Amino acid sequence: MLARSVSSELTCARIGVLRIDLQRELEQLRRDLRRLRPGNVRSAREWICGDAHSEPAKCEDRAAKTARCAQIVVVLDRIRRGTYGRCSVCNSEIPYERLVVAPVASTCKTCNVVDSWLRPDTD
Description:
Elements: H1 12-36, H2 44-49, H3 56-81, H4 96-101, H5 109-118
Helix pairs in contact: 1-3
C-alpha cells in the first residue's frame, strides 16, 4: 500500500472550513462573555477585571476570552481581505497544517522561530 501525502496547500475550500470554525468559536466566546458580564459596568477595565469583589479566576477567564475574540476578529478580517494564510513577515504561504493547529497564526513557522529568537526574555 502506497503512503499518500496530504497537500499542505491552502485552498479556498480549506479557508472556508477554517472560517466557519472560527466564526463558531467567536460566537461561543461571545455567549460565554455575556454570561460572565458583571452588572453595571462603567469602563472597559471594569468589564475585563470586574469589581473589587470579582474572583481572580473570573477576571482571568474574561481577559483570556476577550483576547481570543480580538484575535479571531483580526483573522476573519484577513480572510475577508484575502491575506489569510500568508506570512505577515515574508509573505510566504502558511501551510494548511499549521493553520489547522493555530488558525490565528500570522507568520510561517520559520518567521515565528526567528521572531522568538529576537524577542527579549521577560524573565
